[in-house]
Write a structure and sequence with these properties.
By secondary structure, the chain is of the alpha/beta class. The protein is built from nine helices and seven strands, in the order αααββαββαααβαββα.
Length: 256
């Protein structure tokens, strides 16, 4: 039978405690031992030949310092490795969780009339949409994002309230004011006035109806600035929208 001192008989908690205690003792003796060695060598050097003490310490100090640093780094790097390993395991576990969640279970369904959207009429030019009106739609509904949908049900834009607020604030701050008036600014003005903000409303991805949240997350991460994924029958952006998943929803599901 294994004795109490046998490492094989100790629990993981006991082993972890012993390991910590060993490293604490090691740090103490190495650090203070190194300083003691420096003091001792310095005293000996000064006693034997004060004129050469500087040269002796100049040669010895880097050696002792390197030795102390190497020993401590060797034993304490284990914690960093364990932390990195644990983080990797958690990330792998995250993807495993998301693979088990069908995107249909998490998406906002466009069959629900309560899901906010702006649907273009047949022949309507999306460039003529007024920014203030789009902003008011979101504020009235208490939403921060507004999908703009083509007449056939496919995605045109995904507009975030912060994008419109930013652009309208820029125009309102201009002195002297530049025509047209704030109330008359359109998507076309956004496109010509701030290419980066206009580009942001074009950033969305698509996944097929049978996808998982892990696939939706991969689409989000495939392009910088993506925050929204639309669900269509076959994952094509030319198809009518079935559902919508945001980065917020994916984040919440990741923590479940």
């Amino acid at each position: 039978m294994a004795s109490d001192s046998d490492p094989a008989s100790s629990t993981p908690t006991q082993q972890a405690t012993n390991d910590v205690n060993t490293r604490v003792r090691l740090a103490f003796w190495v650090a203070f031992g190194g300083m003691g060695a420096v003091c001792l060598l310095g005293a000996v050097a000064i006693y034997n030949d004060p004129t050469e003490a500087k040269n002796i310490l100049t040669m010895v100090l880097p050696v002792i310092g390197t030795w102390v640093g190497t020993v401590l780094a060797f034993y304490f790097a284990k914690d960093n490795l364990l932390a990195a390993t644990q983080s990797t395991k958690e990330l792998l576990g995250l993807d495993d969780r998301l693979r088990k969640i069908p995107v249909e279970d998490a998406m906002l369904k466009f069959s629900n009339d309560k899901v906010l959207r702006k649907k273009l009429a047949a022949g309507e030019d999306e460039q003529t949409l007024k920014l203030v009106e789009l902003s008011e739609m979101m504020r009235t509904a208490g939403r921060n994002r507004l999908p703009v949908v083509k007449a056939d049900g496919a995605a045109q834009f995904i507009i975030h309230l912060s994008t419109l607020t930013d652009f309208l604030a820029q125009k309102a701050a201009q002195n002297p004011p530049v025509a047209p008036a704030i109330a008359d600014l359109t998507i076309a003005h956004l496109k010509s006035g701030d290419a980066d903000l206009y580009d942001s409303i074009l950033k969305f991805g698509c996944v097929r109806r049978t996808a998982t949240l892990a696939e939706a997350k991969a689409v989000l991460e495939s392009k910088s600035g993506n925050a929204d994924v639309f669900v269509t029958e076959n994952g094509k952006d030319s198809e009518a929208l079935i559902g919508w998943v945001t980065n917020v929803e994916i984040g919440l599901r990741s923590q479940a």
